Amino acid sequence: MIVELGHFTLILALALAAVQSILPIVGAKIGNVNLMRSANQTSMMMTVMIAFSFGALTWAYVNSDFSVLNVWQNSHSLQPLLYKYTSVWGNHEGSLLLWVLILAFFASLVTVFGRNLPPVLKANVLGVQAWILFAFLLFILFTSNPFERMPNAPLEGKDLNPILQDIGLAIHPPFLYLGYVGFSVTFSFAMAALISGRIDAAWARWVRPWTLIAWIFLTAGISMGSYWAYYELGWGGWWFWDPVENASFMPWLAGTALLHSALVMEKREALKIWTVLLAIVTFSMSLLGAFLVRSGVLTSVHAFATDPERGLFLLVILIAFIGGSLTLFVMRAGMLKTGGLFAPISREGALVLNNLFLSAALATVLFGTLYPLLLESVTGTKISVGAPFFNLTFGPLMLPLLFAVPFGPLLAWKRGDLYAAMSRLYLAAGAALLAVIITLAFTTDTPILAALVIGLAFWLMVGAFAEIATRTGLRKNGISKAFARARGLPGSIWGTAFAHFGLGVTLMGIVAVSVYEKEVIVSMNPGDSATISGYELTLKSIEPRRIANYTEDVLTFDVVSPSGEKFTMAPTKRFYTARQMPTTESAIYTSGFSQLYISLGEVTDNKTAIVRMWWKTQITLIWAGTIFMIFGGLLSLADRRLRVGAPKPAKTKKPSGRQQANA
Amino acid sequence: MRNSLCMLLVTLIFFGTLLPQKSFAVNPDEVLSDPILEQRARDLSTLLRCLVCQNQSIDDSDASLAKDLRVLVRTRLVSGDTNDQVMDYIVSRYGEFVLLQPRFGLHTLLLWVLPFFIIIIGFVAAFIMFRRRRTAKAASLTPEEYTKLSELIENRD
User: Fold this and answer.
1) B55 and B97: one domain?
2) Chain A nearest C-alpha distance from B76 (Å)
3) Are B58 and B45 contained in the same domain?
4) Which of A416, A529, A657, B42 has the most CB atoms around its CB within 10 Å?
């Protein structure tokens, strides 16, 4: 009964979405306030309906109601409770339901926090948001209904895919969706601007915080996904450049560009048209990602049971939204007035450079992902575009951008002074140089290029704080006074510093692990020893164990570290009974920022195991860097000056180029 | 950044299908005794696609076909082939699809040059924009406006 109610409220939500797609926009057009306001109620009601629907599906999962097809296919009565919850979105239908729930949730956030938005803008934004909701609700109800019943309920479910039974999964997809879907708000704002043909100050103020929220979630989601793949897969890799990862990376690149161009628009009223276009592109990338992952076009040669109907439906949604929004853009962009002149060497100029490189990087990933499909459909030639291609093209594109990063915040708006900026970066340059020299002097196997990239990482990390050092007059005033001043600096400046610092940290991790990683593959019997990077590992025992919905072989290793410290590590080989499927649970020992990683191959007769071990130099920095980026994003989001609707602070201290030059 | 099981994985989230038997790619019995030759074999393996897998290199795949290819690469290397010769041989047998990094040619021209093309276009566009802005700014005051402005400035003094 609850399941049917869930299905029913989803249909109600569809009807509400249909109403909200039309009424507020018509109201905005003819100036009818009541019609415009109707969106407030419908969007809240829609959120409640979809939330109920999602709750109903969750209820079915938690109670293991196997009469529901979706529940039967993706869960098992013996699963730990946590995984019964996460199973809800561990499949196509459930994850889509989460998608629309988040979409509706964001629409209701606009309703609640947008009280002081101009009514016409708000009505148009909510209207566009409802178009997206309508399309996806229709998609769910027609092709991917999670509430479908089975005539004869089986006694036991088929279990969630074992590899997904992990805490990493529990949180990473919702974060990713919050990111993808968060960009729908910016998209709706862009569309609203195009519909009404004008961009007002409120628009510019709203776009950046919303982009930032989505960006924070997406960064977190990608980072967690990467770490999860790293430890759960047992392959030791952390980024694979495969189409599905690229699908999440493309909105991130576009969103990062948007974040920076929105900054220019907010502060200087320049780059308006470009920002609108980027907002459209960013959400288009989210939609494209959903299409690529769910339609099966990229895996068409393989035996995955994908329904062509779904792919077609999604393609129609994709074409309608991307095509429609770009058409509207071409028609209306000319009406938007550009403003804010600036010189090439200026903060704006630096942000344009940022956008240029990020766009090129986005194009590389996009084109690399789709090119095999395009080429095959045009000429019939089959080629592959994999990790080696992306490493070769994406890397060189990123390096000049990363080099330019510390300069950006040091340049004044409108017209900057490159020499002054350089003179503030002497510390960063010194740190970078020192890092290169030390690396080359103390290691024998470092390629020159890798040493230079390590230098670049230090350049980024130290350079990130140059603006703060300058603003606080660290050199002139000494530490205590500078500290007092630093506390008074706006959050967005700290945010920028931390985010850029994080970039350097991540880069450091990437170079270190690519250059210094060690790997040993051996076949071991109990009693055998192996050595890697000074760690001595002895296989003590192989023992079978039985737990809830799986059985496993546990291999216990006695490890002695180079400093004589002793501990044990226990990677396991699991076998999930319901799906008849083996998985490997790797064992990881963290020392400083590096990790010792043990993964298992075949284990025969409790006697012989193939063991693969890695010494992953500084690898955790890759994810630590993203934590800094997220923290920077949060600081920036908390900046009082940027909070929409927050009262003005008592002392209005507006940073300007002149003030900076004096400092 | 070597392997590509993730594709499969994330697809699994949405489709919940079976994952093939997961064990190791390179097994100890395949490893060549000459470490330099072995390293060359590993490097080449990361560039070759496992044809029966998702977007995965033979270095990472445990499929039997991937193992055959790994052994083939090693046999050719041991018999004295250069890296290019090994790759040519494998492409001649399996087609260009086997290469994870497509060869530069007419059919992949667009793929390889696009990023750099975009950078160039972007710089040209930015250059034109700045030039146009500058000329626009110079022409923005009409003579009347200019005299009016001068008057205003004089009045302020």
Assistant:
1) yes
2) 22
3) yes
4) A416
Clarify whether residues B149 and B80 are in a common domain. Answer: no
Whether B2 is covered by a domain: the verdict is no
pLDDT of residue B139: 52
Q: Is the pLDDT of residue A333 over 90?
A: no
The reported pLDDT for the residue numbered B1 is 36
- Rg value, chain A, Cα: 27
Closest to A461 (Cα-Cα) out of A435, A483, A480: A435
A103 touching B (Cβ < 8 Å): no
Please name the residues in contact with A531: beta carbons below 8 A apart, sequence gap of 6 or more: A520, A537
* Widest distance between CA atoms in chain A: 82
Asked whether the beta carbons of A63 and A72 are under 8 A apart, the reply is no
Are B91 and B134 in the same domain? no
Instruction: Calculate the CA dihedral of residues A350, A192, A310, A52 and round it to 10 degrees.
Output: 110
Which residues numbered 96-135 in B keep a CB inside 8 Å of some CB on A? 96-102, 107-108, 110-112, 114-116, 118-119, 122-123, 126, 130, 133
DSSP string, A286-320: HHHHHHHHHH-GGGTTS-----HHHHHHHHHHHII
- Tell me the two tokens of residue B45: 């393996």
Q: Is residue B15 part of a domain?
A: no
Q: Average pLDDT, stretch A609-615?
A: 90
Give the A window 56-85 contacts with B, CB below 8 Å: 73-74
B95 and B60 belong to one structural domain? yes
Same domain, B142 and B128: yes
**Residue B6 within any structural domain of the chain:** no
| ipTM computed for the complex | 0.80
Single residue among B88, B103, B118 that ends a domain in this structure: B103
Domain of residue B25 covers 21-103
Long-range contacts of A258-262 (CB under 8 A, 24+ apart): A258/A186, A258/A211, A258/A282, A259/A208, A259/A211, A259/A212, A259/A215, A260/A351, A260/A354, A260/A355, A260/A358, A261/A351, A261/A355, A262/A204, A262/A207, A262/A208, A262/A211
Give the largest CA-CA distance in chain B.
93
Domain assignment of residue B53, yes or no? yes
Contacting B residues, span 41-100, partner chain A, CB-CB under 8 Å: 46-47, 49, 54-55, 57, 60, 62, 95-100
Q: What is the CATH number of the domain that holds B67?
A: 1.10.8.640
Q: What is the pLDDT of residue A547?
A: 82
In DSSP notation, A551-595 reads: EEEEEEEEEE-TTS-EEEE--EEEEETTTTEEEEE-EEEEETTEE
According to DSSP, the residues that pair with A613 across neighbouring strands are: A520, A598
**Residue partners of B102: CB distance under 8 A and separation at least 6:** A383, A384, A385, A389, B96, B108, B111
Interval A63-81 mean pLDDT: 89
Number of structural domains chain B divides into: 2
Tens of pLDDT, residues A105-157? 999 999 998 888 889 999 999 999 999 999 999 999 998 899 999 888 888 88
Whole-number pLDDT of residue A583? 81
292-351 in A: which are within 8 Å (CB) of B? 293-294, 298-299, 302-306, 341, 343-344
Which of B103, B127, B148 finishes a domain?
B103
Instruction: Give which of B21, B59, B101, B103 to mutate to test A binding, by max A Cβ within 10 Å.
Output: B101
